[in-house]
Each structure stands twice: as C-alpha cells, then as structure tokens.
Design brief:
CATH architecture of chain B: 2-Layer Sandwich
Shape of chain A: elongated
Structural class of chain B: alpha+beta
Organism (chain B): Saltatorellus ferox
Number of domains of chain B: 1
Distance between the termini of chain B: 23 Å
Number of strands of chain A: 0
Distance between the termini of chain A: 24 Å
Oligomer: heterodimer
Strand order of the largest sheet of chain B: 1-3-4-2
Structural class of chain A: mainly alpha
Strand content of chain B: 35-45%
CATH topology of chain B: Translation Initiation Factor IF3
CATH superfamily of chain B: Hypothetical protein apc22750. Chain B
Radius of gyration of chain A: 31 Å
Largest sheet of chain B: 4 strands, mixed
Number of helices of chain A: 6
Protein name (chain B): UPF0145 protein Poly30_34770
Shape of chain B: elongated
Strand content of chain A: under 5%
Family (chain B): Belongs to the UPF0145 family.
Number of domains of chain A: 2
Largest interface: A-B, 23 and 26 residues
Pfam families (chain B): YbjQ_1
Transmembrane segments (chain A): 87-108, 120-137
Helix content of chain A: over 70%
Chain lengths: 153, 108
C-alpha cells in the first residue's frame, strides 16, 4: 500500500493553537476568559487572532457557495430525471438478463457442441450465477446493519 | 472523543501516549455507480456516486480507529492522518491513524 497524502508541515505552537481555537469559538468560557486576559498584555496574540479573523472572512468570500441539500434533492426528484433514469435502468437490466438467458439457451440447445463442453460451459455459468446471488443475498441482508450507507459526503 | 491533527491539545497536558491506533476499510462501489459515474465522466461535474463511497470509507475508518482508541482507554487521538491507496479498481481504501493519548486539563 502506498500512502499518498501524509502531511509533513511544521506543527503550530501552543499559542497558535489557542488563537485558532479562540477565533473559531471552540474554547470553553473559562478558557476564553483566560485567553482574553492574556491578550490584554500580549499584543502578539491580539495580532494573531485578528489575522485569523481576516483569513476566515477571506475564505468565506472566495469559497463557492455549497448548494443546500434540498437543492440536490429537488434535482433528483424532477419527474423527467426520475422517468428517464427509471426507464433506462429497467431496459438495461431487463435486456441484460434476457440476453444472458438467451445465451444460456443457445449453448444448451446447440447440437454443434458436445455434451461435455455444453456441460462445462453451463456449469461455469451456473457457478458464477450462484456465487453472484449469494453475494447479492448477503449484501441485502447486511444493508440494515451497515451504518455508513447513508453517508453522502 | 477528541480527534485532532496537531501533536498537542490546547489547554491540556498529555500524561500518557498509548500508542498507534488505526482503522482501515475497503468499500466497493456497485456496478450501477460505475455506469452512472462513467456517464458523468462524459458530461462533467461532481461524480456523487464516487464521492459517496469515499465518504463512507472515511467515516468507517475513523470509527474503527476510535473503537481501538476507546479500547485502550484513550481520552484523545492526536496527530490524526488519512492515507489512501487502491487495492482494487472499483474500491476505495482508507486508513485513518493517529496516536492515542491520555490527558488532563491544565489549571492555568
């Protein structure tokens, strides 16, 4: 396995971490009061917090707005989209299943292929089908136990 | 449980390093996702089907790492990182790892 995203950036100092937590309103009320008391006598901390606030404002300005979940959901619910997707999947699955069945039938009834070869081909297809169905069955049974299938982003 | 990317916890003192904790998962996307993903590759935009499988793997890896940290009696995981790789063409592998620690709140 090859790691692709290991970071080697310098670690921030304790004061920088406190300033970041303060700027993000992540300190407890007691910690915030202590930090503010330090800011009154340490101008460097005031300067650092001001920089972080400015950075936050800048980030909000340049970050593209993320559409709300309901906007994504409304796109999925459009009748034209749902109709074309539904019909598309039905045709694809039905035609694939039918093609598979016809291929099996063609092999099974082909007099040009010996019984041995027909048996081997059909056994392979049957084995593959059984394995697939067992995996599918297990997935269906495991889905209610999978807490991550609702994670979207 | 606190999980942070830095090697210290503001306002707290690390009393014990319990060692490496990690969580790994490999999650596959189904054939339907690949078909839709391939079509979105033609027209552009976010391939939500792939975003979803990576997000699922990320959350599962974090939870497994947290379970390992809980088992060690840790208060937090510091130096948290993700690593990814590809073990199969239609799957997302995510490794979440960090150092489990015990800590106490600093008085001043």
């Amino acid at each position: 396995m090859t790691a692709q995203n290991t970071s080697h950036e310098a670690e921030p100092t304790e004061d920088e971490l406190l300033a970041m937590a303060y700027a993000d309103c992540e300190l407890s009320p007691e910690e915030a009061v202590r930090f503010e008391a330090r800011m009154e006598v340490e101008p460097a901390l005031v300067h650092r917090v001001a920089e972080l606030h400015a950075l936050d404002v800048l980030a909000r300005r340049i970050a593209p707005p993320e559409p709300a979940d309901r906007d994504w959901a409304s796109l999925q619910l459009e009748p034209l989209y749902r109709g074309t997707v539904g019909i598309g999947w039905f045709l694809l699955i039905a035609a694939t299943a039918l093609s598979f069945a016809l291929a099996v039938w063609a092999v099974a009834t082909n007099e040009g292929i010996s019984y041995l070869h027909r048996g081997l081909i059909l056994s392979s297809l049957l084995g593959f089908t059984l394995l697939f169905l067992s995996v599918l069955w297990r997935r269906i049974r495991a889905m209610p136990l999978d807490p991550y299938r609702h994670v979207e982003r | 449980m606190l999980i942070i990317t830095t090697s210290t916890v503001p306002g707290s003192e690390i009393t014990e390093a319990l060692g490496l904790v990690r969580g790994t998962t490999v999650r596959a996307r189904h054939l339907g996702s690949d078909i839709i993903g391939m079509m979105k590759g033609i027209v552009g935009g976010e391939v939500h089907e792939y975003t979803k499988v990576v997000a699922e793997a990320r959350e599962e890896a974090i939870d497994r790492m947290k379970a390992e940290a809980f088992a060690l009696g840790a208060d937090a995981v510091i130096g948290f990182r993700f690593a990814t790789s590809e073990v199969a063409k239609n799957a997302a592998e995510v490794v979440a790892y960090g150092t489990a620690i015990k800590m106490v709140k600093r008085d001043s």
